[in-house]
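Exercise: predict the structure of this protein bound to coproporphyrinogen I.
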Amino acid sequence: MSNLKKILKNKNSCKSVWFMRQAGRYLPEFKNIRSKNPDFIKLCLNSDLSSEITLQPIKRFNLDSAIIFSDILMIPYALGQKITFLKNDGPKLSKFKPNLFFSNYEKDFTKKLSPVYDAIRITRKKLETEKSLIAFVGAPWTLFIYMYGIRKSKNQVELDKLKIDDKKIEMIFQELIKFICLHIKNQINAGADVVQIFDTWAGLIPTNKIKDYCFKPNAKIVEFCRKEGIPNICFPKGIREKYEDFNKLVKPDGISIDYDIDPIWARDKLKNVVVQGGLSPYFLLKNEEEMFEAATKYIQIFKDIPYVFNLGHGLLPETDPDKVAKLIKFYRNF
Ligand code: 1CP
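Solution:
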C-alpha cells in the first residue's frame, strides 16, 4: 500500500510530502514538452506525454506521491464543451448548452477520457509501489464556474448574471456529480490509489449558499468514495472558518488547508481527519531563511497528528525548482 493511502486509511503520522501543481508550468522539462504541444487538451490526451510529465517531479525531487498530469476541465470537455487556453487569460469554454449537457452517456464519457486512464496505467507501472498515484477531480461548483464563464476576476463571480433558478443548478450539480464519481472510479480502476477533490473557487460562494453549492455536493462525492473504499482529500479553498463545518458535514479522509487558515486553529478545530498543506506557495519565492521558517511553523504545529506536508495552493509558475528541492530536503531532515 502506498504511503499516502496508509496515512489516509489508518490516520497514522508517518511522513509524506507532495505539492499541488508539482507537475507542470514551473519545470523546464515541462516547458520543453509544452512548447512543442500548443493544444493543452490534446497534451492531456497524449497518454505517453502525460505520464512522462507526471513523473518529472518524482524523478527530480523523489516526492512521495505523483499526481496525474491532467486538468479539472477534462470533465466539461468530455461532456461536450470546447475548451481553449488563452495565453495569460486562463481557460475559455464554449457556451454551455443544457440540451447537450443532459444528453451525455457514461459509456461515451469513459471512452473520450480513456487516454487519461491509459496515462494512469502507464504511470502506475513505472512508479514504486510505496509511492501514491493521486487522481483528481474538480468539485461541481468549481467546474460550474468555468462551464458558465461567470468568474469576473480572481475574487469575484457574477452570480446574478446566471439567470437560472436553484432547481436548475441542483439538476446540473447532480448530473456533474454522476460524471465526477465515474471519473474517480475510472481513474482508480486504472491504478490511482487516492483522489483529491479540488473546490478551488469555494471561497466565492455566498454564505447563504455554502451548504447547497459546497458542503452537500462534496459530501455526496466523499460518500461515494467511502462506499467504494477510495481514500479521499478535499480542498475547499478560501472558505475560512467554514472549514470546521465542512469537515464535520463532509467527513473526508483528508482535508487540504489553504494559506488563509491559521494552522493552530486547524489543528484544534479539524478533528478525525488528516490535515494536508497550508504553507503559502509565495514562501518559495522568498529567501531560504524565510521559507524554512514558515515551513518549520507548519511542521512543528502538526508534529503530533497525521499531517501531509504540502502547500496552501499550487506551486507558482515563477518558482525556482531548486527551491522546491531545498524545501523537500528540509522537510525530510527535520
Ligand atoms: O499553459 C499551460 O502550460 C497550461 C497550464 C496548466 C497546467 C500545467 C493548466 C491549465 N492545467 C495544468 C495541469 C493541472 N491542472 C494539474 C496537474 C499538474 C499538477 O498539479 O501536478 C492539476 C492538478 C490541475 C488542476 C486544476 N486546473 C485546478 C485545481 C487546482 C488549483 O490549482 O486550484 C484548476 C482550478 C484548474 C483550471 C486551470 N487549468 C489551467 C489553468 C491555467 C487553470 C486555472 C485558471 C484560473 O485561474 O482560472
